[in-house]
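Continued from yesterday's entry.
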Amino acid sequence: MKTSYIKAFVLLVFLSLLSSCPKDELKQFNKNDKKPVETDAVKTSFKTVRVDKYGISISVPRDWEVKKGGGNPVIFARSADAGPNGPSANVVIEDLSQRMAPYDYLEANLITMQISLPDLKILQRGTGLHSGIQMAWILYTYPREEVLMEVLTYCQTKEYTAYAVTTMCPAEDFDRHKGVFVKIGQSLRIK
């Protein structure tokens, strides 16, 4: 009898955790009217940027300037006509003390982010498979001086390492760049 209660409790905990984890994808819609919009990713030519030292690659628009660093970020890319607030993308790699799912990694970092950016507002977040790769993403805004920034981060984890691709620009320009940002985030590959 006691064993059946334990099994039922474990099953309830598992089901509640499963139902609380978002599974939806970032949709290609206009935030105001929820209708599909044509994205700039369809019209953009991309190039692959590799950092063999870390066994990673991402795709960025062909005309973006790219810098590879020895530390974090390991890749920094920005539009050729970017202002001080982007559009830009970067890849950061972090060693972990334990294995974590991508969504759990983003959630754990959210606490630190909210301390350093107290006006951060989460717009959406979720998980999904992209080309068979499990990823998590988070879309948020925060003020940078007098500019409201909108940021989309995609994350993957492998063993004891987290890989995060962050794209950003002023919030007023986000819908115009969203398709490119999604493509950049979903293009992350790890050997």
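--- second protein ---
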Amino acid sequence: MRVFLTIFILLVSLSANATHWLTYYVYYETEYIQGPWSRFDILETSEYKYLDVLKYEDLFGSDATDLTNKMLSRLWEKNNTVYDWDYDLILQGDSVIIVPKEEIKEFETVKNEIVATFTSNGYKTVIFRFTDQEKAFTINDLSLPYFDLTTRQKENEKAITTTTSTDITENTQPNENHGNENILLIVGLIVSCIINIGFIVFLIMKKKK
């Protein structure tokens, strides 16, 4: 019975992790078909391709690599043939180091999408570390036009604010179950603490007998 209670408490305690909801953006390459464009010359040189952006919101734990791996998985969902390669991921300050384990066939597309995605979510540099060389890229190294994310300025500055003109069609609304899931996490943590305290009291009473 004591062994069973110990194992049960350990399992409950391990499942009580710090989690939080986070909004992030993922860029992907697409083709511009119609409509006005203020940087027409760049579109011509890019064969009318540009980087579009989608907004996502997911639940993450305390591990910093959760977000970066999730963003890469989102890119894989958009185009799994381009991202059909294994990698190791290293976070170093404001840089992300990607170590591909095999050849990246459409490297220019991958580079543009990953660099735009990671730099729009707080990182400054993306480094691809190959077996024979290392390449570092920033937002200035993108070879395609992209929709730039803007933030609303303070009203007292009387600044005209703009937002990206793309339609964000996937996952734009916050999950309605956020509150319920947060409550469940808190309840789980409280239950875990109560069980631990009860187990300690049980052991103390057992020793006194």
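The radius of gyration is 24 Å. Residues 198 and 204 are 10 Å apart (CA to CA). Will compare against the first tomorrow.
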